[in-house]
Amino acid sequence: MVSSQIKYRIYEGSEYRELMPRLIEDGFIPISTKDGLRLMLCALRTKATEHINRLVDNYIDTGDGLVTFEEQLIMVPFARQLRRTNAISNLIGGKLPLIPDEGYDLGGIRLSRSDLERNGVNADITKEQALKHSGWLARAHGDIDLLGEFVEAAYAYVKERFGYDTTMSFYLPEKTKAPLMRAAFISYLGWRFEQGDYGLLTNQGRIVGIRNPLPPRLESMVHV
């Protein structure tokens, strides 16, 4: 039995599609990319090694979906489709096909592939690029103040610790003819971009589950 006092829990050590049902069964909901950024920002501000090890030096999978469809991507906050991964048997290359009767209007944030490419994709980007990046703004659910605060803290951290002037790459999956959803994730700071296929539901996962919507101030809970 999970204590009701625990505000979040990290699930890891297996595939995303296997971790998600465990998270739901324990009474948690998958964290969003926005709250993932908030937790990482809070950990950076504490400057405590234990918090940074847990939330900054590790990647975070989320319950937000990223749909590829022809010339666009769609960031889908709190994607209901990803919460049914225990019933998935028809994944296509580790991605979830969206069936016609669910419709394609997912209520998410639509992103142009050409705009993303101009912003910078599949490579570590500069601080100036990150502050204006439409993909990262979508990860912040449109909260431009949060994005600005996170970028300032993230670039100061990687410069001081690793000497890097670039970080915060944005992975742009290949085009698909039919809508396919994968999990949106946040890479750990200090990671250098490498070619790969990321966000697959069959990849090793590290999902943060939250008990309730996170409060405005997180300082008291980053150590959980």
Throw out a few tags for this protein.
three-stranded antiparallel β-sheet; alpha+beta; 7 helices; 224 residues; five-stranded antiparallel β-sheet
Number of strands: 10
Strand order of the largest sheet: 5-9-3-4-6
Rg: 17 Å
Order of helices and strands: EHEHHEEEEHEHHHEEE
Share in β-strands = 15-25%
Describe the global form. globular
Mean pLDDT: 88
Helix percent reads 25-40%
Q: Could you name the ranges where pLDDT drops below 50 across 5 or more consecutive residues?
A: none
Largest sheet: 5 strands, antiparallel
Tally the helices: 7
Q: Report, as a whole number of angstroms, the end-to-end distance.
A: 16 Å
**Class based on secondary structure composition and strand pairing:** alpha+beta
Structural description of this entry:
The chain has 224 residues and is of the alpha+beta class. Strands 5-9-3-4-6 form a 5-stranded antiparallel sheet. A 3-stranded antiparallel sheet has the order 1-10-2, covered by helices on one side. Strand 3 and strand 4 form a beta hairpin. Helix 2 packs across helix 7. The chain starts with 7 loop residues before the first strand and ends in a 14-residue tail after the last strand. The mean pLDDT is 88.
Write a brief structural summary.
By secondary structure, the protein is α+β, with helices and mostly antiparallel strands. It has helices at about 15-25, 35-45, 50-55, 115-120, 125-130, 135-140, 145-160, and strands at about 10-15, 30, 60-70, 70-75, 95, 110, 125, 165, 180-185, 205-210. It has a 5-stranded antiparallel beta sheet with strand order 5-9-3-4-6. The chain has a 3-stranded antiparallel beta sheet with strand order 1-10-2, with helices on one face.
